[in-house]
């Protein structure tokens, strides 16, 4: 598949959807000074080209009582890509990547429970070609993938779009279930919004056989309670961001919360995690190229007090990111949405 050709309006539309993925075309058009029908046609073209998709990020407590585990895998007797392909069939894997460094493969397992997490990690040992597995349990996580911004908008446009969303700042992620069990209608709408974060209440009502008034009310509650947050996913290489990276940081005792906060403020970062390991913090991010990564480390990371050592890995391939299969050539693929509890 040939990547779609993008002009300035396409890029600004993508930037707008990163910030306000459920905003109406009229509202986005007012901010971008563009015709709403034109924006809708361009969005549909990019979806058809498999460049982007608006999904729903479910609150962790909706599908798990456990925190994720970040896993590094060493291989022997096989190529890393062959082993990576076998990992695709294992359940509960949110993220898969081939990376540089001592461990050629990296995965994130987020299973429904601690027992299921243990089983998921245990099954990795049985994959042919896996020599060693190093599992790093997450202790706390700041999620940035949903709020990562490619920087295509002016400051005024960005502020106007954020005002439309009225989104609350994202704090540390926890696997805390809703106070009361979801009704069947609520579960149905959560599942629908996970698959299509821009789905309208009227469309959900038709698909689920609900009264439109009921769908409107429950969709609003699901979004207001933040059980699901709309999230734009893209083929980042087609946008010019060719270098996903991971930092493994040793941090001075007592400095971890401040280091994580400082990392979370940097536009290049997507995910910041405090882990149980000989390193304190994992940080995933995305930049245009390796020169930009070098500048990020020397100009931004170097200014953060409390960091004792930095290990840098470049992602050579990311066949799955946030439950969504992806390919640099063919675009976005299957969405492995986690099952609700």
Which sheet architecture does the biggest sheet show?
A: 8 strands, antiparallel, barrel
Count, helices: 12
Q: Roughly how many Å apart are the termini?
A: 37 Å
Q: How many beta-strand segments?
A: 12
Order of helices and strands: HHHEHEHEEHEHHHHEEHEEHEEE
Indicate the structural class. alpha+beta
Strand percent estimate: 25-35%
Strand order of the largest sheet: 2-4-3-10-7-9-8-5
* Low-confidence regions: none
Work out the helicity level: 25-40%
The coarse silhouette is: globular
**Rounded Rg:** 20 Å
Mean pLDDT across every amino acid position: 94
Pfam family, one: HTH_24
Protein name: Lrp/AsnC family transcriptional regulator
Organism: Nocardia albiluteola
Structure write-up:
With 341 residues, the protein is α+β, with helices and mostly antiparallel strands. Helices cover 35% and strands 28% of the residues. The chain is built from twelve helices and twelve strands. Strand 11 and strand 12 form a beta hairpin. Helix 8 (184-195) crosses helix 10 (212-224) and helix 9 crosses helix 10. The chain is globular.
Q: What key phrases describe this protein's structure?
A:
single chain; 341 residues; alpha+beta; two-stranded antiparallel ribbon; globular; Dimeric_a/b-barrel; Lrp/AsnC family transcriptional regulator; Tscrpt_reg_AsnC-like; WH-like_DNA-bd_sf
């Amino acid at each position: 598949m040939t990547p779609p050709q993008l002009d300035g309006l396409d890029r600004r539309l993508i930037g707008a959807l990163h910030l306000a993925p459920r905003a109406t075309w009229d509202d986005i058009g007012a901010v971008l000074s563009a015709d709403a029908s034109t924006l809708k046609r361009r969005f549909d073209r990019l979806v058809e080209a498999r460049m982007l998709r608006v999904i729903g990020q479910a609150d962790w407590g909706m599908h798990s009582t456990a925190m994720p585990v970040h896993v590094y895998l060493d291989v022997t007797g096989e190529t890393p890509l062959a082993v990576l392909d076998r990992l695709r069939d294992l359940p509960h894997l949110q993220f898969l990547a081939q990376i540089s460094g001592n461990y050629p493969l990296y995965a994130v397992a987020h299973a429904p429970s601690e027992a299921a997490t243990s089983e998921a990690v245990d099954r990795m040992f049985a994959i042919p070609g896996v020599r060693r597995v190093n599992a790093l349990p997450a202790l706390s996580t700041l999620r940035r993938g949903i709020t990562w911004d490619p920087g295509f908008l002016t400051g005024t446009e960005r502020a106007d779009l954020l005002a439309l969303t009225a989104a609350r700042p994202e704090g540390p992620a926890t696997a805390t279930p809703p106070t009361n069990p979801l009704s069947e209608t609520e579960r149905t709408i959560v599942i629908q919004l996970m698959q299509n974060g821009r789905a309208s209440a009227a469309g959900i009502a038709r698909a689920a056989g609900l009264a439109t008034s009921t769908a409107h009310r429950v969709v609003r509650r699901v979004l207001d309670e933040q059980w699901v947050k709309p999230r734009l996913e893209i083929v980042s290489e087609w946008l010019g961001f060719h270098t996903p990276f991971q930092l493994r940081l040793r941090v001075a005792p007592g400095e971890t919360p401040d280091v994580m906060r400082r990392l979370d403020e940097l536009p290049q970062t997507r995910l910041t995690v405090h882990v149980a390991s000989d390193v304190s913090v994992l940080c995933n991010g995305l930049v245009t190229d390796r020169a930009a990564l070098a500048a990020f480390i020397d100009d931004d990371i170097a200014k953060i007090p409390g960091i004792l050592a930095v290990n840098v890995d470049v992602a050579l391939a990311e066949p799955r990111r946030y439950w969504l299969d992806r390919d640099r050539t063919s675009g976005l693929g299957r969405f492995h949405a986690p099952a609700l509890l």
